Amino acid sequence: MSVRVVIGAQWGDEGKGKIVDLLSDQADYVARYQGGANAGHTLNFDGQTHILHLIPSGIFHHNTCCVISNGVVIDPLTLLEEIELVEKTETSVEGRLLISETAHVIMPYHKSLDKVGESALGQQKIGTTGRGIGPAYMHKIARVGIRIMDLLDPDFLRQKMEANLTEVNARLAAYNSPPLELDPMYNQMLDAGEKLRPYICNTTERIHEALAAGRDILLEGAQGALLDIDHGTYPYVTSSSPVSGGACIGTGIPPTAIDNVMGIAKAYCTRVGNGPFPTELKDKIGDAIREAGHEFGSTTGRPRRCGWIDLVALKYAVKINGMNELVITKLDVLDKFDIVKACTSYRIDGSETTRFPLRLKEIDKVEPVYTEFNGWKESTREATSYDELPQTTRTYLEAISDYLEVPVVIVSTGPGRNETIVAGDI
């Protein structure tokens, strides 16, 4: 038996979907443990591109059971659409997809609150996707949230929706937004609940049965460690805990059951939305990285901010996650650069440090200090083993590994399943 947590080690969009898809071939269970439909995991195989938002990335491996765990906030309508899209690929979902009965529901009114609240922030916008994630987690913490199991209890569902809508409409009125009607939403959610009924169960119990049976389990996070609600660049963060500790809360698996924590990082760095980004390149190099990497959000389509890899931030992610495995993705994006840089320290008010600051005023003052590497100026996409990579490429990867004190176990040189080099023991 092995239990591995797969986390984004930067600001999200690191290519976790591809890596989880790769590892799922040998996994019995893949469980998503936090976030909602604000994350898009892109998979490329057999000449097709598939974007998943809620269903774990292992769904296309027919012997793998996929779990949407209690820590996820679920938009039932989006999930039903996603199930339909997966089934159109002739992939069986029934019996292989489990939905936690205690996962919280993103209601239509959460999306309304998200949009008006974000709009009211003006220039201080967080940069949310408008998918209702934050308001759903707010209701969860306020203990007025609606859970998946509630969709199967018509009277209780109506009672909870009536109570919530009174508060929601009062908040919408404060933003000069029209009130929402109960009945259309209620009927919509009741119908969605019935359609999802075959998948709903006590997923914590099922996962513990898998643990007892010695099954191999992958725990899949969304977003990235630097967007964690507690440990990220607050308030420019997500509303849940993408870090490895969040996997325990989000699934019910104890910390003692986890064997490996695998961090996924791009060979450079990107960020979507607002918030600090010390190595951001607002020049032709940043534009070139964006173009070569097709850096546009799979959920929103927004152009991603691009920059050189930030090893100070990555070292911080290693610490808070206990990462003992590192994956470098999108290496091929850097194939044509004469010089490749890595940020190895920060200069703040004239002093140099390798500490990642958490105060926004400090981060805003950061001047990245770079180590330069010779570019390899040749394609890495044809390499099938680590030794086939150019020596200058290996020098770059080994410098990253040495700085972080974590071995690089996988290198991704393109979006396809076959464009992957397993460089260590996994």
TrEMBL record:
<feature type="binding site">
    <location>
        <position position="304"/>
    </location>
    <ligand>
        <name>GTP</name>
    </ligand>
</feature>
<dbReference type="InterPro" id="IPR001114">
    <property type="entry name" value="Adenylosuccinate_synthetase"/>
</dbReference>
<feature type="binding site">
    <location>
        <begin position="12"/>
        <end position="18"/>
    </location>
    <ligand>
        <name>GTP</name>
    </ligand>
</feature>
<feature type="binding site">
    <location>
        <begin position="412"/>
        <end position="414"/>
    </location>
    <ligand>
        <name>GTP</name>
    </ligand>
</feature>
<dbReference type="GO" id="GO:0005737">
    <property type="term" value="C:cytoplasm"/>
</dbReference>
<feature type="binding site">
    <location>
        <begin position="40"/>
        <end position="42"/>
    </location>
    <ligand>
        <name>GTP</name>
    </ligand>
</feature>
<dbReference type="InterPro" id="IPR042111">
    <property type="entry name" value="Adenylosuccinate_synth_dom3"/>
</dbReference>
<keyword id="KW-0460">Magnesium</keyword>
<feature type="binding site" description="in other chain">
    <location>
        <position position="223"/>
    </location>
    <ligand>
        <name>IMP</name>
    </ligand>
</feature>
<dbReference type="GO" id="GO:0004019">
    <property type="term" value="F:adenylosuccinate synthase activity"/>
</dbReference>
<dbReference type="InterPro" id="IPR018220">
    <property type="entry name" value="Adenylosuccin_syn_GTP-bd"/>
</dbReference>
<feature type="binding site">
    <location>
        <begin position="298"/>
        <end position="304"/>
    </location>
    <ligand>
        <name>substrate</name>
    </ligand>
</feature>
<protein>
    <recommendedName>
        <fullName>Adenylosuccinate synthetase</fullName>
        <ecNumber>6.3.4.4</ecNumber>
    </recommendedName>
</protein>
<dbReference type="InterPro" id="IPR042109">
    <property type="entry name" value="Adenylosuccinate_synth_dom1"/>
</dbReference>
<feature type="binding site" description="in other chain">
    <location>
        <position position="129"/>
    </location>
    <ligand>
        <name>IMP</name>
    </ligand>
</feature>
<comment type="similarity">
    <text>Belongs to the adenylosuccinate synthetase family.</text>
</comment>
<feature type="binding site" description="in other chain">
    <location>
        <position position="302"/>
    </location>
    <ligand>
        <name>IMP</name>
    </ligand>
</feature>
<dbReference type="GO" id="GO:0044208">
    <property type="term" value="P:'de novo' AMP biosynthetic process"/>
</dbReference>
<keyword id="KW-0963">Cytoplasm</keyword>
<keyword id="KW-0547">Nucleotide-binding</keyword>
<dbReference type="GO" id="GO:0046040">
    <property type="term" value="P:IMP metabolic process"/>
</dbReference>
<dbReference type="Pfam" id="PF00709">
    <property type="entry name" value="Adenylsucc_synt"/>
</dbReference>
<dbReference type="InterPro" id="IPR027417">
    <property type="entry name" value="P-loop_NTPase"/>
</dbReference>
<feature type="binding site" description="in other chain">
    <location>
        <begin position="38"/>
        <end position="41"/>
    </location>
    <ligand>
        <name>IMP</name>
    </ligand>
</feature>
<feature type="binding site">
    <location>
        <position position="143"/>
    </location>
    <ligand>
        <name>IMP</name>
    </ligand>
</feature>
<keyword id="KW-0479">Metal-binding</keyword>
<feature type="active site" description="Proton donor">
    <location>
        <position position="41"/>
    </location>
</feature>
<feature type="binding site">
    <location>
        <position position="40"/>
    </location>
    <ligand>
        <name>Mg(2+)</name>
    </ligand>
</feature>
<keyword id="KW-0342">GTP-binding</keyword>
<feature type="binding site">
    <location>
        <begin position="330"/>
        <end position="332"/>
    </location>
    <ligand>
        <name>GTP</name>
    </ligand>
</feature>
<dbReference type="GO" id="GO:0005525">
    <property type="term" value="F:GTP binding"/>
</dbReference>
<comment type="function">
    <text>Plays an important role in the de novo pathway of purine nucleotide biosynthesis. Catalyzes the first committed step in the biosynthesis of AMP from IMP.</text>
</comment>
<dbReference type="GO" id="GO:0000287">
    <property type="term" value="F:magnesium ion binding"/>
</dbReference>
<keyword id="KW-0436">Ligase</keyword>
<dbReference type="InterPro" id="IPR042110">
    <property type="entry name" value="Adenylosuccinate_synth_dom2"/>
</dbReference>
<feature type="binding site" description="in other chain">
    <location>
        <position position="238"/>
    </location>
    <ligand>
        <name>IMP</name>
    </ligand>
</feature>
<feature type="binding site" description="in other chain">
    <location>
        <begin position="13"/>
        <end position="16"/>
    </location>
    <ligand>
        <name>IMP</name>
    </ligand>
</feature>
<feature type="active site">
    <location>
        <position position="140"/>
    </location>
</feature>
<feature type="binding site">
    <location>
        <position position="13"/>
    </location>
    <ligand>
        <name>Mg(2+)</name>
    </ligand>
</feature>
<comment type="pathway">
    <text>Purine metabolism; AMP biosynthesis via de novo pathway; AMP from IMP: step 1/2.</text>
</comment>
<comment type="subunit">
    <text>Homodimer.</text>
</comment>
<keyword id="KW-0658">Purine biosynthesis</keyword>
